[in-house]
Specification:
Shape: globular
Order of helices and strands: EHEEHEEEHEHEH
Largest sheet: 4 strands, parallel
Helix content: 25-40%
Distance between the termini: 32 Å
Strand content: 15-25%
Number of helices: 5
Length: 137
């Protein structure tokens, strides 16, 4: 049965385990944005033993790229990016505590396995998310 839920970041394992395929989920709280170049840099920082710019534990990343702002607006629509572009880096970040990813498209078996092992979830962004996100930035 499809359920509409409101959940908040950072996420607990219990919250993630309570979700079911098909649930309509509204997320509140801080959601970070990062694409492939940022994921690569984060992994390089981990390899070098550097401090992360934020605590990954239970956090969410929206794979997004903002469009140019219209006059009088701080930012344009923030459209979801294909999750597969982050697949080379995601298992490492999931291992470090990242629990929620939001984007579009399918994910590799390595990412799916990491999500299962460390209790994470990948959300598919729906149509209209880009315009809604622009209002929340």
């Amino acid at each position: 049965m499809e359920e509409k839920r409101i959940i908040s970041a950072p996420f607990t394992d219990e919250t993630i385990k309570s979700l079911h395929a098909g649930d309509m989920v509204y997320i509140s709280g801080t959601i970070y944005t990062a694409r492939d170049a940022a994921h690569k840099r984060l992994c390089e920082m981990l390899d070098a033993g550097e401090a992360m710019p934020f605590d990954f534990e239970g956090q969410a990343v929206y794979y997004a790229g903002p469009c140019p702002a219209k006059p009088g607006q701080p930012i344009g629509s923030v459209g979801p990016t294909t999750g597969g572009r982050m697949d080379a880096y995601s298992p490492r970040l999931i291992q470090e505590g990242l629990r929620v990813m939001i984007g579009k498209g399918s994910r590799s078996e390595e990412v799916i396995d990491a999500l299962k092992k460390y209790t994470g979830v990948y959300f598919a962004a729906i149509g209209g998310a880009a315009a809604l996100m622009a209002k929340a930035v």
